[in-house]
Amino acid sequence: MLDRVSRREAVWLAADRIFFLRTVDSAPSELWERSPGGRERRVATWSDLPSACGAFDFLFRMPDARLGVVLECDDETSQLFAYLPAESSFELIGDLPYVADIAFRSDISGGFVGTGNNRCWAISPFELPARAESVAVFPELTCAAGASAKSPMLTRAGRLVFLATHDPLSDANDDTRRWSLYTTETGGRGYRATGPTVRGFPVADISVDGTAVAIAVNRGDETRLLMVNLRTGESENIRESEYIGRPTFSPDGTRLAFVEDFDDIRILDLSVP
Fold it and tell me: pTM to 2 decimals?
């Protein structure tokens, strides 16, 4: 019987570098790199990292063009590293209460995290060095209020963009809640919905210039990949499949990559109508 190889959490870090987590059967995930030609190579296992507390959890793109690597220590703590491709080395950033998503400010001094599990989330600010867990940014978008907010993203101007639902979770195995994309108003006062309302489980990425958000919405065996223009709120479906992982924009915003059906990394050319 062949080993089952799966890929997830792809991040397009530079023009010629896409990083992703690769898993063989039930072994811990490894950090891998893919070239434009499709060649893949292993970069590291979690045990290669200095003072690593546990296995790789997810990846993200940092504002300074480094790769953010999050390790899951336990149900209450996450550990953050930055990977420097030019030096092939890792730098420990710090520990935080368990996070499911993260977005750094441009000065890397802090940002926002999506906290929670079992499909019930809230968004909170954080500062480095890590301090005690802070209060949710929007109390009305928390589990206690019968709602959820996730996938914090930041534009270059510092505007917070995120996904949220006001629908309570009725069955953790059948997420049919309605989610909307929100952006904070100028000055951080309040927020407004933009783009379509989607039903299912969404994951998203924002373009480097902060003008577009790609959202993959999984519901059962059906997935839609949407592109939302943050300036106009207009959106379009750009792909349908059985499963699509978190999308990731190329640094120049002209292409979009994602893991499809846990099998391979697909790339869409956004310049082609």
Answer: 0.91
